[in-house]
Amino acid sequence: MSIQPGDTIPDTAVQCIDGDIQPAQTAALFAGRKVLLFGVPGAFTPTCSNRHLPGYSAHFAEFRQRGIDVMCLAVNDGYVMQAWAASQQVPAGLLMLADGNASFTRALGLELDGTAFGMGLRTRRFALYAEDGVARLVQVEAPGELRVSSAEAMLAAVDSLR
After folding, report:
1. What is the pLDDT of residues 113-143, one digit of tens each?
2. Is 48 a catalytic site residue?
């Protein structure tokens, strides 16, 4: 079962990239802050690179104005996420979370089996908003879509919670 509003963000190890690659625990990343986490099936894939991540980069300042930190999650290693962030010119402060073993993705219940496409286990396309480590809003995309987890949709959804 996937994470639902009211659930606590699970605590697992990830690699956190904001320029450098650092080990991190998800509980610490979410504690005491407002976080918008969006998940993508893979770095350097078409929709993720052409639409999903660029939307969050373009609207990053609007999330920050609302006091919300933004993080991007993918089942890729830290080096791939670091290279993807550099190639996409991700703004400083937009944290890239590398979940190489899919531990966090599985703990969220948001895994996607992409073996039929040669991709293995991946993260489903989603976005969630959490306050102090508790999910307040969870939006999971239907296969092949980018609507409810886009930056624009999440800005509107977060504003409606206020």
Report:
1. 888 887 888 999 999 999 999 999 999 999 8
2. yes
